[in-house]
Amino acid sequence: MPCYRCGVRQTDPVRGVSPWRRGVRRERQVLICPSCQREHDLDLDLDRCGSCGSTKLICRLGEVECRSCGAVRTAEADADEWPSLLRAGTPSLSEEVEAALSRVLGRHPTR
Questions:
Q1: Using CA atoms, how far apart are residues 89 and 108, in angstroms rounded to an integer?
Q2: Which DSSP state fits 98?
Q3: How confident is the model at residue 81 (pLDDT cuts 50, 70, 90)?
Q4: How does residue 108 score in pLDDT terms, banded at 50, 70 and 90?
Q5: Tens digits of per-residue pLDDT, 23-76?
Q6: How far is the C-alpha of 30 from the C-alpha of 82, rounded, in Å?
Q7: What is the CA radius of gyration of the chain?
Q8: Which of 6, 47, 52, 97 gets the highest tally of CB atoms within 10 A of its CB?
Q9: Superkingdom of this entry's organism (predicted)?
Q10: CB 34 within 8 Å of CB 13
Q11: Is the four-CA dihedral 48, 51, 53, 57 of positive or negative sign?
């Protein structure tokens, strides 16, 4: 899953805690890259818990859970509200995989 703000994808994880942050926006789980965490006030973009106001939410199996107070509710997002995660000019995952395989295997891209 790419960063919801800039579209960059996570690279192979290093040992330890991930610098990426999870959040919920428009009732959907999103990831936030370290750069966007530094450059933007994400608390303005992310959904908040209805009980305690925290932005430390996770979304799974149609439910949104607050990591601060433990409140759980049903996610009720309309699919039409969810913005596309693919930005213009950002390669798709399949294009990224093809390019990585070409680099590793020494192939030239076919076009």
A1: 21
A2: H
A3: very low
A4: low
A5: 999 888 899 999 998 888 877 789 999 999 999 999 888 899 999 999 999 887
A6: 11
A7: 17
A8: 47
A9: Bacteria
A10: no
A11: negative
Q: What does the pLDDT read at residue 72?
A: 92
* Cα gap 72→81, rounded to integer Å: 22
Contact 54/32 with Cβ under 8 angstroms? no
Q: Do 99 and 91 meet the contact criterion of CB atoms below 8 Å apart?
A: yes
Nearest CA to 30 out of 61, 67, 4 is that of 4
Burial class (CB in 10 A: 0-12, 13-18, 19+), 42: middle
Identity (one letter) of the amino acid at 1? M
Count of CA atoms in the C-beta half-sphere (13 A) of 68: 11
Neighbours of 70 (CB within 10 A): 10
Q: What pTM was estimated for this model as a whole?
A: 0.61
